[in-house]
Specification:
12-stranded antiparallel β-sheet
Amino acid sequence: MKTNLNMIVSLFIVLFLLPDKLFPQRIYAFEQFLENVRIKREKDFQSLGCYMFAFHREHIIREDSLSTRMILRGREYHHKNLPIVRVYETLRINGVPVDTLLKPDTLLAQENKPEFYDENFHQYYMIRDLGKTSLNNTEMRLLEFIPRGETSGLMKGKVWIDPKTYGIIKMVLEPHPLPVGFTKMEIEIFNTYDDKGRIIRFGMQSLSHIITVDKQMEIRIRERYSHYERYPDSLCDSLNTHYSSQP
């Protein structure tokens, strides 16, 4: 019995403490896959220029038994995937048009949604390979990432990657840990590529879902972008300069 126990302990040590020596080819292949994702992501960022997008933003806010639906439409300008300004053209609340539109919203100071595989990603996250999966009838590779330790301000989540192009197609993110008072705070982000595998915009569609612990309030926010147009970089530079100087 003691011999069997020693064998089990030895096997445990070999499997869990020496995985690099046992499965070097598998680990190398996974690391190479991640490197290809990083290279693809960098190429995508370099290919982005000055773009204008039409956006559709929908808020559904339920508080107790009262529900409010707000729809915003307009244009948004980006440079190198960094949002500059959002111009509102239509506002509806519970289906009723509202004449008083919001002023242009400068987005320069807003914090961008976290992206998978940023620089120094491994310092803050552990990555787990969940294998093959399907998204919109297309084969994907699914990864999970979890923050190391108790560092605040990080996200845990999953990412769907096209194994042919290494493009990041979808992400599901959740703050880790959840803020006090919330039972769910999740955001889905969908990236969009053209037929040649080139990025059009990171986060072309997104869906946020927020629920409080007492379940008295629920918020859903859906954003979609379309009708994108490419402009000279000088246009975004001028917009950048103009809105940076605004009080």
